[in-house]
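help with this record:
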Amino acid sequence: MGHEQNQGAALLQMLPLLWLLPHSWAIPEAPTSVWPDDLQNHTFQHTVYCQDGSPSVGLSESYDEDQLFFFNFSENTRVPRLPEFADWAQEQRDAPAILFDKVFCQMMIRELEPIFDGKIPVSRGFPIAEVFTLKPLEFGKPNTLVCFVSNLFPPMLTVNWQHHSVPVEGVGPTFVSAVDGLSFQAFSYLNVTPEPSDIFSCIVTHEIDRYTAIAYWVPQNALPSDLLENVLCGVAFGLGVLGIIVGVVLIIYFRKPCSGSISSGRARYSDACVHVSGLFCGTVGGHI
């Protein structure tokens, strides 16, 4: 009962802030359309978050849980996660509403933090990191390493890359996006030209508890691009020659006339001719 009363008191203290909610949705909603039954519905998710850590405020926008953009509040611009989204990132008509959401979120943090301090879990498990290539691996050809961080809450993290235990400079921004269940995920990208001796590591530090997750990447099951091309050409040429030889042998074999009689006491079989090419032979095996 005491716990329920504490929750009720906390909600009552939140009531003075509710007058701001209609202003945070300043952009008019599009009219609801009626979709035919054979069309699939999709979800566009616009998530603003703020916290007493780094980053202090963030905005992610995703389509069916695939992140499209995050918002750079220092420059008030959208940043596309992939180059293909660059044209859409130029849209800035909703910038005033985004800035209002930022102020509103920070105000909520200031008001609610003293109320819920010690009553809400600060962290939810440890982040998990894994590294993979964006394109199929070929040595000597440009590629991109992707460090994917899951089970992230709250989204306070730093991502660093190392090559043979040496820090890598010039790493791009880390893209943080919200997923269902009040959790987050993050992506960090590193442009590389892989070589057989490479060892890369993605080091993820969860700032809330200083937990560090490290994911390593080493080349596996890859061939140098020139060797891969030579092997494929050799296999194709070998299959072609083998096909020609088999074709010639079959033509010679099936153009031989089937014997009409065989010495007494021996069996006459022409099943192979019947099964494979009935045009050449029309008899079946038997004894004379």
The longest helix spans residues 225-254.
